[in-house]
Specification:
With 171 residues, this protein is α+β, with helices and mostly antiparallel strands. The protein is 30% helix and 32% strand. A hairpin with a 4-residue loop joins strand 5 and strand 6. Bound molecules: coenzyme A.
C-alpha cells in the first residue's frame, strides 16, 4: 500500500444543475438533496485517497446559509484534510452559480468522516496525509480537535481523553 498521499491527490469536484425534481415548494434545492450530493462527492474523494470501499461514519454540522434556486449550477469540492488509521476527514465546500447573471455564492461547508473498509466491512488502514500548502496544514492541524469533538459527541471517547479540546477551552 502507498504510505502517504497529498490532499490534492484526492481532490474531487462535482458540478450539477438544479432541476425541478431537486427543489422544495419554494423552488429551492432541498437540503436533503444537497446532503446526498455532499455524501457522494465526499465518498469519491475518500475512495481516491484510500483506494478502498468507504462508508460514511459521521457528518459534522451542515448549515444552509443561502437558498440555491432552480436553474442554479452547484459545484461541490471535496478534499481529504487528514487521515487517521482507517478514517479520513473530508472537507466539502459548496457554491452555487447563476451563470447568465455571472453571480457566485458560497452556500455550504461541512466536514464528513469516511472509514475505509474491507470486503467484510471491517475498518482497514489508509495512507497518511502529507500537506503541501498553508491552508492544508491549517485544516490538518484542526482535524485532530474536530475528531475528538465528534468522537466525544458520538459517545466513543471520554471527554477527559479529548486532550486537544481541553487545551482549546483553557484560559
Ligand atoms: C464506521 C464503522 C465502519 C466503524 O466500525 P467500528 O467497528 O466501530 O470500528 P472502530 O471502532 O475500529 O472505528 C473505526 C474508525 O471509525 C471511526 N469512527 C467510528 N465511529 C465514528 C463516528 N461516529 N464519527 C467519526 N469517526 C468514527 C473511529 O474513530 C475509527 O477511526 P480510526 O481507525 O481512524 O482511528 C461502522 O460503525 C459502520 O460500518 N457504520 C455504518 C456505516 C454506514 O453504513 N454508513 C452509511 C450510513 S447511511
Amino acid at each position: 500500500m502507498i504510505k502517504t498521499k497529498t490532499p490534492s491527490e484526492s481532490l474531487t469536484t462535482m458540478t450539477e444543475m438544479i432541476f425541478p425534481n431537486d427543489t422544495n415548494t419554494l423552488g429551492n434545492l432541498m437540503g436533503g438533496n444537497l446532503m446526498r450530493l455532499m455524501d457522494v462527492v465526499g465518498a469519491i474523494c475518500a475512495q481516491k485517497h484510500s483506494n478502498r470501499i468507504v462508508v460514511t461514519a459521521s457528518v459534522d454540522n451542515v448549515s444552509f446559509k443561502e437558498p440555491i434556486p432552480l436553474g442554479s449550477v452547484v459545484t461541490l469540492q471535496a478534499k481529504v484534510t487528514r487521515a487517521f488509521s482507517s478514517s479520513m476527514e473530508v472537507v466539502i465546500d459548496v457554491w452555487a452559480e447563476n451563470i447568465p447573471a455571472q453571480e457566485r455564492v458560497t452556500t455550504n461547508k461541512a466536514f464528513f468522516t469516511f472509514v475505509a473498509v474491507d470486503q467484510s466491512g471491517r475498518p482497514i488502514d489508509v495512507p497518511q496525509t502529507i500537506t503541501e500548502t498553508d491552508e492544508e496544514k491549517e485544516l490538518y492541524d484542526g482535524a485532530l480537535r474536530r475528531r475528538q469533538l465528534r468522537l466525544v459527541l458520538a459517545g466513543r471517547m471520554k471527554p477527559e481523553e479529548a486532550v486537544e479540546l481541553r487545551t482549546l477551552f483553557e484560559v
